[in-house]
């Protein structure tokens, strides 16, 4: 038997949030390690991905995936190393991509586990070469269908999805306008990522600034935020604009519709008259079979630094709940990853 710790540390979902999540929704526990049986393996978590979709999984409501279970480890994507194996397809020491959640060890029968080899940056399998990068690539290329000379607007422009969308848009000849929270993130989008402009959504005159930055209107809007950003974008969408929708982080903790008039007829009328294509997608449900195609396209772009990637690394599993809460409020800068091992 391989030498490893005898205790598993885990964050369980203690209660379902009422609105924005708080630390009290999670409970930190120490458990004895499970015994590995035939056909199983013990995974040691090295990196845990924290992503906005997790907020939806905390609710007990019908969605595209089952809710996280109370008193079980909180769900999440992980990069792990096989600590011990009685599984025919995996050996101790293998690096794998898994969904073993917020814990330091997990028992697995191999379902949903993918070998990744030993990457120079294993945690990147949770970001630029994983679910966020895949989301950016398929959403933009398949639904957005960028063409040279078009204007692409992307919200959360320095996050793992938005930053990748913008850089891919630029490589495809688009003029890219980012939306981000704060001057530092906007400067990074322009100076480092090469966007033509980036507008700070915290500004009082945000809508006016966005309009000024898009004098020819907007041909593609990559939607991952919703709320006031969508409100400012929608009037600027051109005829035959495409709007891939991968998330709506501004509304994940809302318990009711926002106050104000019902703008559904206005939005539906705009979609009709301007023939706007707005399409939601769930990356692995809709494009799971195209993951190898994505890796083949993205890996060389990352290796040649044609697409840059930034991580927001948090040290220690004990800090996961606060890092998650901060990420939902936009306090992270780059892809939020917890270094567990």
From TrEMBL:
The keyword Oxidoreductase applies. The keyword Oxidoreductase applies. Residues 24-338 form the Enoyl reductase (ER) domain. Keywords: Oxidoreductase. SUPFAM superfamilies: GroES-like, NAD(P)-binding Rossmann-fold domains. It comes from the Bacteria. Transmembrane segments: none annotated. CDD domains: PGDH. This is NADP-dependent oxidoreductase. It comes from Pantoea dispersa. InterPro entries: ADH-like_C, ADH_N_2, ER, GroES-like_sf, MDR_fam, NAD(P)-bd_dom_sf.
């Amino acid at each position: 038997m391989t030498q490893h710790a005898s205790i598993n540390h885990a964050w369980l979902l203690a209660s379902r949030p009422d609105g924005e999540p708080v630390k009290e929704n999670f409970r930190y526990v120490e458990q004895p390690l499970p015994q590995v049986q035939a056909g199983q393996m013990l995974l040691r978590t090295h990196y845990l991905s924290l992503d906005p979709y997790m907020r939806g999984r905390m609710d007990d409501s019908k969605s595209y995936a089952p809710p996280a279970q109370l008193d079980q480890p909180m769900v999440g994507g992980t990069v792990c190393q096989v600590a011990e194996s009685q599984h025919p397809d995996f050996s101790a020491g293998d690096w794998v991509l898994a969904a073993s959640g917020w814990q330091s060890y997990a028992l697995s029968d191999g379902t949903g586990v993918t070998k990744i080899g030993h990457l120079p940056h294993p945690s990147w399998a949770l970001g630029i070469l994983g679910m966020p990068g895949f989301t950016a690539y398929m959403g933009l290329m398949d639904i957005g269908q960028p063409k040279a000379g078009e204007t692409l607007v992307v919200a959360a422009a320095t996050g793992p999805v938005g930053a990748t969308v913008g850089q891919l848009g630029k490589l495809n000849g688009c003029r890219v306008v980012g939306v981000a929270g704060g001057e530092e993130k906007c400067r990074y989008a322009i100076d480092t990522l090469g966007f033509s402009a980036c507008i700070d959504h915290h500004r009082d005159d945000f809508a006016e600034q966005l309009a000024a930055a898009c004098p020819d209107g907007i041909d593609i809007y990559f939607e991952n935020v919703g709320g006031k950003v969508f409100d400012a974008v929608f009037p600027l969408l051109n005829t035959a604009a495409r709007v891939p929708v991968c998330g709506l982080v501004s509304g994940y903790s809302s318990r009711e519709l926002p106050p104000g008039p019902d703008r559904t007829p206005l939005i539906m009328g705009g979609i009709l008259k301007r023939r706007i294509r707005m399409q939601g997608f769930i990356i692995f449900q809709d494009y799971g079979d195209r993951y190898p195609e994505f890796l083949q396209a993205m890996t060389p772009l990352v290796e040649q630094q044609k697409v840059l990637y930034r991580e927001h690394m948090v040290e220690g599993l004990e800090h996961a709940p606060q890092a998650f809460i901060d990420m939902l409020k936009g306090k992270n800068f780059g892809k939020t990853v917890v270094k567990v091992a």
